[in-house]
Structures are given as C-alpha cells and as structure tokens.
Amino acid sequence: MTDSPRSAVGALLIHGLGGTQYDLGLMHKVLRRAGVDTHALTLPGHGSAPEDLLNVTAEDWLDAVQRKYRELRPLYPTLHVMGMCMGSLLAIEVAKRERHRDGTLVALASPVFIDGWSTPWYRALRYLVYRLPALARRMKVEEAEPYGIKNELVRSIVKAKFERNDNFHYRWVPLYCIQQVDRLRGWVKQNLADVHCPTLVVHAREDELTSLHSARFLDAQLGTRDKKLVVLENSYHMVCVDNDRDQVAQCVLEHFGIDPALAKPRRRSTAEPAESGLND
Amino acid sequence: MKASSWLQPLLFAIIYGLLAFFSIDAQDSANLSTLIWPSAGILLGALMLSPARQWPMWMLIAGVLHTTASLTNSRPPSMALLFTTADLATMAAIAALWRYRVGEACTLTQPRSLFWFIGLVLVGCIAGGLVTDEALEWLHHPTAHYGWSTWAISVGIGCLTGAPLVMAWGNFRVRLIGGPNRQNLLIGLLWFTALLVTAEIAFDGPTSTWVFGDTNYELTYLPLLFVVLVAMVWEERGTTLALVTLALVAGVNTLQGEGPFVFEAQQRSLALIEVQGYVGAAALMGLTMSAINASRQQALQLAAAWKVRFEGALLSSRHLMYEFDPHSGKISWGGEVQALLGLSAASLATLDDFLARVHPDDRQPFIDHAQFNDKGSDEILTQSYRFRFRCADGEYRDAVVTGAPIVDFDGEVYRVDGLLHLESELTMVQRV
C-alpha cells in the first residue's frame, strides 16, 4: 500500500463489513506487481473490536471513503475504485456521488440484495428488530460456516484464524451495523444511472450471502455502457480468496487495461533435495 | 455489548412464574403434588447452561416464585416449602452431576451428554419423589404414602421437555450466513403443521370424533412420526419446539377432559399422569433422534477436516494419491491431478487410461513393480518404481510411484494404494 504516487495509475481498494484488507486477498500484490499504486483504508469501526462498530453509521463509512478518494484523486491521472462486499457498495456510491470518470469501478460480490442460499430464514425479521434500537445495538450477528469460502482448505485456514483470534475479520457484528448496510444498500439502488465510468461486476453464482440477482441488477441499472459482468462458477462470497481468485485477479487486470497474464498465480515446484537430506 | 444483566433473569422469572402459577392449579388433591410441573425443566435448563456462580440467582428466583404460587393456591406453608426445597435440591443435584459428567460439552446434541441427562433425570426424579414422600410422612400429612410417582412423573416430564428447550434456545445466535435456510424452514414447517394437525386429531375430542367418529388411542402414534421428521429438518431447536407443542396439545386437551387418555370412570389426575408418560416417550425419541442427527453431522465435519489435512499434505509435497481397484480396473485419485500432470482425474480413471500414458518400454515393469498384478507372494513389499509418463504437453517426464497392495483377510489383494510424484527436471538430468 503506497503512500506517494509512483505510478500514473492508482487504485483504491475498500474492504467489507467487519473485515480488513484480507477480504481482497492478493489483489494489492497483484496490482502492485502490475504497476498500479494501491491504496487502502480501514473503515471507521474496523480493525479493533466489534463493539467499535456501534459508534459509526453508513454516512461515516461513506465519508471516509469519499475523503480518501478526494485525497487520491489529484495524485493520479487514472484512479480505479474497487470494493469487496460492503466495500463494493461504498465504491459504487462514491463513484456515483463523485461522478467518477477518470478510472474504472470494480464491484466484487456486491450485496445489493441479501438473499443468498445460506442466509437464515429469519433474515427478514431484522427489520422488526430495527424498530427496537436498544435491541438492535445489543444483538450480535455471527459469522459462521461456510465463511463465504467454497475451498475447504482455505475455509479451514479461516476457521483456524478465527480460533486463534487473529484480527483479520470480526467474528460478529452488531445487528445495528447490518441496519447501516441496509441503509447503504438503499442508497446504492437509487440513481445507478449516474454511474458513468467503465464498470466490472464480479459475482459468484454460488454466493451464499447475496445471489446473482444483485450482480444482474447492477448490470441492468448502471448508467455506463462500458460494463461487464463476470460470473464465477467455483466460489462462494469471498471471491478474492476462494477457488476463482486467480480468475478474479485476471479479470480486474484486464478491466484496468493491463495484461492479465501478470496475475499469474504462484507456481508450485519441487526443489532438489538438500545436501544433508535423506538421500545422503 | 455484554448481555444485559437483568434481561435473562427477567425472562426466566416470567416463563418460570407463568408455568408455575398455571401448573399449581392442576394439583393432586390427595398428596398435594402438582400433576404437571414444566417449571422444573426451565430451572434445570438454566442451571445446566449457567456457570455455578449464577446458580444462587436462578434458584432464588425459582424458589420465591414456587413458594408464592404454592401459598396462593392454599398449600400449607410447610408443604409449600417442602415442595420448593425438593424441586430446587433435585434440579441442582441433576445439573451438578450432569455438568460434572459431561465437562465442557454443555449441549444435549451429543449422545453421551444426552444419555447422562436422561439417566440423571430419571434417577433424580425417582429419588426426589421418594424423599418428598418420606418428608410428607414426617410432616404428618394425612395422605402421606399416597405415592411418590406423581411428583416424580410431573417433575421428570417437565425436565425432559423444558430443559432441552432452554438448552437449545439459550445457545441461539443470530447469524449472517449459515444455520437453517428458507428451504429448511419450509420443509420443517410442513412437518410441524402435520404434527399440529395430527396431535389435534389425536387429542382433541370433538375433532377426533368429527374425523373418526371416536377418540382412538392408536392415533397417538401419528404425531410421533412428525416429531421425528421435524427433528431431522429443524434439528435440536425444532425438536424441542415440536415436543413442547405436542405436550401442550396433549396436556391441555387432557386437562379439559378430552382425548384418548380420558375415560368416564377415571380421575383426571390419572389421565394427566398417563398422558405425561406419552409425552415423556415422545421426548426421549425426539431428543435421541436429534442427538443422532447432530453426531452424524459432527462425524461428517471430522471427516471433512481429515480430508482437508490429507489434501494439504498432498498439495505441499506435490504428490498424488492413487487407489487402484483390481476388480474393476478403476483408479481413484487424490490431490491436484490437473495441476501436477496437466490432465484431469477423469482422463486417468482406469488402469488402461494410465498405462496408455506410460512409456511402452516401461509398461510391463511398471505393472510388476507397482504390484498392480498380485503375484501371491508371502511378503507385502512397499516398492518405488521410476517410469516415464507422458504429460498433457506430450513430453515424457520421470515419475515415481511408491505403494503396495492392501491385502484382505483371505490373502487377496483388495486395493493397491500409493503415492505418485513427478521428478524435478534437475533430478532427471543428473540421473542421465
């Protein structure tokens, strides 16, 4: 994450609710390898403890992203804005409000509708609880399997990180926070025709949090003609860390006008046995 | 963000109190014991779920409400205190022993913890009933020795239905993803509705008479089927809900003098005791079903965790695992076949497929050394064999298999298992 411009191209990467830059997997590295300056921000209430989310609103998140965008905007002739999950809602909304044109927009797994196959049946009841603010602030909404990940090995790593209390993602968020995301979803759904920058929408067919309906909605409503919808066939919600992560990186590079081959995944190979190894 | 210190006790007091004041009306006129006592289950569940430091609070609330309900229902003070003490002591003993036996696993979804729960409830309630009966005699109650069973059954069935309900729902956490989805809800709702309808037909006199012309004892088996079906779809929480619903329908109708357990010449108390026996049997069946379901899921999770470990080891060591079935000629592969060989596992599904890619000069030695043909020797030798394998790019690469047959109890080769890896180019060059 660079602080001063070293390239003519910059990218602002926005993480999701309760998350960190881990949500975006190797995207920073891939982009930097491709010569793009990447910038990230920790959204208000994140990176510390879930309780801190009680003091923030959707406006705070949006303000923080807008501030960062305005800070970066003069530094780069081309500035791309990319977000994952709730971060993609913020990216869309900022692109809309700032009339973003000198760069592109990437919306990864945008939860315009929270209707994925693994969302619990009682999800609609949250609107009732919102009417009881004290309860909404007290109620915890937990992360659970499959943690947005289809790859069992990666999922086991995420589980282990949770068990170790690694500070890469909150284990739970207050329901109040989901209320803020719902408000943000409401804003995003309006005036999507005002988004005029080239836009890439990436969504997994099997996203367990938000169905493909969200991506199709964006694809239909966005004002720009230069838009592309990529549907991933072997991932769940966390598209940047799941099975299709390399495909996502390639799509993003291609969308940025960079050779997608630069996103080549780390190759495995076998080293020669060491001198004092078992062959001796 | 800590759970409010007053919310849980308030909820407990409301539920316990309502049940206590409702049940105290249904009292055996002879031995003064209530005929139903679901409050016991609520207290037991709270104790089983809570750390010991919270026990005095639950017991104080329960004790005050129990005694107050007794006194307002004209129980003599000595009797009121006796039943309160018996209830508190029995529940505390069951909960303490259960927690001691199952340790950290404060759940009823594991067969071991469930069987300890059922066993302790049965033994505890019988012992509690006997002690209460002795105490009644010591207090010179005129109808002492009328029987310990009324207290034992009412408290025992209250425990079997109430405690699992508290345990299941006390652990409920709202989730963003995971947990029961809409499809599970709808399927479970279908079985739950069927349970309600069949319970109503079986226990509600007018409905049963309207449908079948009479109340039939045989019909009481019908709701049990749907308790099991609900348990399979809605798991522990759904099971407890189904059991409470069945207990409510059966209990309320029997209290009203309707249903298959009520006869004209029979006392209402006997009918209530009998219907509780039925509810108890349903509870045992539903909870067992739920525990079997949960333990099956745990076993699946364990198997998945091992699968991930094996796959991680194969991935890191860049090996493939193979299993050859000599009877079908098929090979099953583990590991990243596509990444390592550039071929799909499906394209190497049989020995013939595989041999077609082995260098012609290496085929027969490969079959011999990899022991794909059993020679019937006495020794089972794990061997490594190097051979040339044609990868997806058409180039031959040196590959090594290391494996041995798995021999069954009559000496026949059951499978041939082993590992395969490609040698690095440098190793190949050095050897040449």
From TrEMBL, chain A:
Molecular functions (GO terms): hydrolase activity
Keyword Hydrolase included in the entry's annotation: yes
Keyword Hydrolase part of the UniProt annotation: yes
Residues in AB hydrolase-1 domain copies: 12-249
Pfam name, any one: Abhydrolase_6
Cross-referenced InterPro entries: AB_hydrolase_1 (IPR000073), AB_hydrolase_fold (IPR029058), Esterase_lipase (IPR012354), MAG_DAG_Lipase (IPR051044)
PANTHER family recorded: PHOSPHOLIPASE-RELATED
Protein name stated in the entry: Alpha/beta fold hydrolase
Automatic annotation (TrEMBL), chain B:
Keywords: Cell membrane, Membrane, Transmembrane, Transmembrane helix
Compartments reported by the entry: Cell membrane
All copies of domain MASE1, residue ranges: 10-296
Pfam families: MASE1, PAS_3
Residues that span the membrane, as ranges: 36-52, 80-102, 114-131, 151-172, 184-203, 215-234, 241-263, 275-292
InterPro entries tied to this protein: MASE1, PAS-like_dom_sf, PAS_fold_3
Mode of membrane association: Multi-pass membrane protein
Signal peptide feature range: none
Residue ranges constituting the PAS fold-3 domain according to the UniProt record: 331-418
The protein's name in its UniProt record: MASE1 domain-containing protein
Organism per entry: Crenobacter oryzisoli
Lineage: Bacteria, Pseudomonadati, Pseudomonadota, Betaproteobacteria, Neisseriales
